[in-house]
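User: Please fill in residues for this 405-position structure.
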């Protein structure tokens, strides 16, 4: 069977110097993981491109996988052919014969030549190949700007020549895991999964941290966070999910802190716990879904007082986005329906009716002095439950559920 090939263009990655190898390895690792079910795929990274070769006929499946891998700017199926004009023309005609050409469509040929010894220059290659296609497909007009089909002929310096006809947009960004590890504060809302997605696309490996407060919060609320994690795993690798029990802390806050300040104190507890989880899991940064002014805890004054408890970098990729932009992304990465489920998380259950939007540092510290901060944090960390969630999680859960019926 003929070997198939896809050529991957790196985008931003190609500007990286010494680290390029590491970036390529991360990308290759993810591609290998995502294509485990497609047999015998071979990956060849080189300076400017990555080639993927395989023999199975499942083109479509591989194309769907590659569309969602961070760090790929675009990719195209390529067809190797001997460096010989007759062979090139013959192969070009074969490729066009596989298209379903309609009246009114157009094409152009673009030639690239790194082998300056080749018998024709780029202009001549374009004209000769264009002529044979035009002769066979007389209803197909030549169009220089935005043609329906663009055939690229690349004459490489070493080996052979390559033809390509279709090009697919990649996800852009940087390879997953090439920019450190972040711990994502993942609630069940719309924002935090998008924050995670954006950092993942930028190359950051993600672990998810969810604060849950059973019996005040339901098992469905926890499940929601896990399903969101599965959706995120689609863009990276399986994700470590940390479920932190938070009820005891919230009960203590409710008992000792005035309602108006409880949100601030609660958030400070979350960050203290995050800090220790970062340390224990060797991560580099906290990621959350805060957006300036969205709710009381996200006014600039609140954020300052909340932030005071940690010196770990906090990444807030959504800080300057509007809700409708977040919703658009939620639809794009398919988290909208899950985030839209009605189950309340711990913040909502304990939400004060009138939270203070300009809390004062000294007052907050005063209230906190009534609480055993260290003990409560330690207890929450020690009872945190960890599991790995992969992108198949939702499908597996549904299958298990169907078996029960
Ligand atoms: P989201 O912001 O994810 O839509 P939300 O709007 O209910 O959920 P906010 O009150 O806006 O949450 O909280 C701001 C950020 O704090 C969230 O984006 C998330 O990163 C973090 N956070 C809130 N609640 C939780 C939780 N139960 N577990 C983990 N992180 C949380
Ligand atoms: Mg929010």
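Assistant: Residues filled in for all 405 positions:
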């Amino acid at each position: 069977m003929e070997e198939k090939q896809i050529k991957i263009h790196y985008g931003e990655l190609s500007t990286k110097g010494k680290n390029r190898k590491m970036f390529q390895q991360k990308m290759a690792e993810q591609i290998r993981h995502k294509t485990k079910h497609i047999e015998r795929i071979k990956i060849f990274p080189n300076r400017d491109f990555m080639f993927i070769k395989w023999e199975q006929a499942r083109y479509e499946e591989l194309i769907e996988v590659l569309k969602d891998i961070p760090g790929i700017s675009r990719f195209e199926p390529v067809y190797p052919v001997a460096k010989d004009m007759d062979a090139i023309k013959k192969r070009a005609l074969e490729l066009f014969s596989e298209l379903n050409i309609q009246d009114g469509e157009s094409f152009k040929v673009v030639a690239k030549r790194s082998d300056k010894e080749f018998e024709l220059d780029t202009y001549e290659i374009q004209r000769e190949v264009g002529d044979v296609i035009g002769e066979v497909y007389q209803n197909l007009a030549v169009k220089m700007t935005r043609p329906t089909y663009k055939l690229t002929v690349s004459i490489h310096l070493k080996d052979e020549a390559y033809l390509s006809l279709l090009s697919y947009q990649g996800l852009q960004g940087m390879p997953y895991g090439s920019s450190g590890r972040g711990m994502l504060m993942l609630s069940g809302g719309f924002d935090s999964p998008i924050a995670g997605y954006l950092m993942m696309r930028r190359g950051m490996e993600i672990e998810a941290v969810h604060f849950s407060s059973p019996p005040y919060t339901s098992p469905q609320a926890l499940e929601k966070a896990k399903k969101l994690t599965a959706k995120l795993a689609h863009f990276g690798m399986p994700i470590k999910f940390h479920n932190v029990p938070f009820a005891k802390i919230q009960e203590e806050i409710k008992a000792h802190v005035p309602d108006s300040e409880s949100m601030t104190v609660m958030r400070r507890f979350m960050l203290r716990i995050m800090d220790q989880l970062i340390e224990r899991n060797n991560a580099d940064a906290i990621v959350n879904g805060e957006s300036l002014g969205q709710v009381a805890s996200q006014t600039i004054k609140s954020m300052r007082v909340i932030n005071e408890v940690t010196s770990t970098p906090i990444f807030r990729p959504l800080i300057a986005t509007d809700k409708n932009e977040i919703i658009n992304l939620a639809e794009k990465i398919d988290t909208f329906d899950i985030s839209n489920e009605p189950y309340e998380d711990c913040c909502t259950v304990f939400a004060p009716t009138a939270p203070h939007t300009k809390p004062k540092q000294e007052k907050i510290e005063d209230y906190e002095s009534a609480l055993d901060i260290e003990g409560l944090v330690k207890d929450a960390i020690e009872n945190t439950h960890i599991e790995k969630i992969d992108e198949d999680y939702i499908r597996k859960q549904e299958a298990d559920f169907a078996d029960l019926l």
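For context: The pocket of magnesium ion (ligand 2) is lined by residues 189, 191, 289, 294 (CB under 6 Å).
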